[in-house]
């Protein structure tokens, strides 16, 4: 003889378990989809980095983070060394600056070039190489940084203090009418000299598989818990006597 089922409670528990199971499974599937998207992105970016350089987009061209960032590009122009910008950054060399210098092209447009990193003391003493005359730059197209690193301060255009590579605010503060919305991380061209180019770190956080396994594991916990409940409800009732 089985014990009498307590239907109201069983129905409520079943509905709750169904909602949890559906939610956990959907989250797990979504993370699997994100995993495939991230792997595809990593593959595409890797192909861009190692491809032959293409001409840099025009200043008014539409570029996007997903479609264009880390594309290897080349462009020719003249550095406006008097308008260079030092942007504070932690580095392998200790406290340092990125050296961003406007490169003016023949059409008058400007592209900010990240020439590389220079130790803080050398940057403040202007102890790094500047290039005069027409030059050709090859590097990776990067999108403007709207947010800084974890402990960075906000840019202060009024005081010309910069803590992130926010290209829009930098070019507006300099009064450039036609400026590209992106910047270029220059490749290493002067080994042993400052600024040191080729310092781009291409790293994508990819924890989607772990997240997916977590959600699927929670779904299994729901199934196991519901199974134990049914087993308890359906077990034989103790005999009287």
Brief account:
It contains five helices and seven strands; from the N terminus they run αβαββββαβαβα. The protein is α+β, with helices and mostly antiparallel strands and 241 residues long.
List the defining traits of the structure above:
five-stranded mixed beta barrel; 241 residues; alpha+beta
Strand-helix topology:
Elements: H1 7-49, E1 54-55, H2 65-68, E2 72-79, E3 85-91, E4 94-104, E5 110-119, H3 120-124, E6 134-143, H4 167-174, E7 179-186, H5 208-234
Parallel strand pairs: 1-2, 5-7
Antiparallel strand pairs: 2-4, 2-6, 3-4, 4-5, 6-7
Helix pairs in contact: 1-5
How would you describe the overall organization of this protein?
- The chain is α+β, with helices and mostly antiparallel strands and 241 residues long.
- It has helices at 7-49, 65-68, 120-124, 167-174, 208-234, and strands spanning 54-55, 72-79, 85-91, 94-104, 110-119, 134-143, 179-186.
- It has a 5-stranded mixed beta barrel with strand order 2-4-5-7-6.
- The radius of gyration is 28 Å and the shape is elongated.
Biggest pleated-sheet summary? 5 strands, mixed, barrel
Mean pLDDT: 84
Structural class: alpha+beta
General form: elongated
């Amino acid at each position: 003889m089985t014990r009498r089922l307590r239907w109201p409670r069983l129905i409520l528990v079943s509905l709750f378990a169904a909602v949890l199971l559906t939610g956990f499974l959907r989250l797990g599937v979504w993370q699997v989809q994100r995993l495939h998207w991230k792997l595809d992105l990593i593959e595409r970016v890797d192909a861009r980095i190692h491809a032959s350089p293409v001409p840099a987009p025009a200043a008014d061209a539409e570029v996007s983070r997903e479609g264009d960032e880390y594309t290897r590009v080349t462009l020719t122009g003249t550095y406006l060394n008097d308008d260079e910008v030092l942007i504070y950054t932690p580095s392998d060399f200790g406290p340092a600056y990125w050296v961003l210098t406007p490169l003016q092209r023949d059409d008058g447009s400007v592209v900010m070039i990240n020439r590389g990193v220079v130790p803080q003391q050398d940057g403040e003493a202007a102890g790094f190489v500047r290039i005069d005359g027409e030059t050709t730059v090859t590097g990776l197209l990067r999108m403007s940084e709207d947010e800084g690193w974890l402990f960075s301060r906000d840019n202060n255009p009024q005081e010309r203090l910069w803590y992130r590579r926010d290209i829009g605010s930098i070019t507006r503060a300099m009064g450039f009418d036609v400026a590209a919305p992106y910047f270029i991380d220059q490749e290493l061209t002067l080994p042993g000299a400052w600024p040191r180019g080729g310092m781009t770190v291409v790293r994508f956080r990819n924890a989607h598989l772990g997240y997916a396994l977590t959600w699927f594991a929670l779904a299994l916990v729901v199934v196991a818990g519901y199974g134990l409940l049914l087993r308890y409800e359906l077990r034989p009732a103790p005999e009287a006597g």
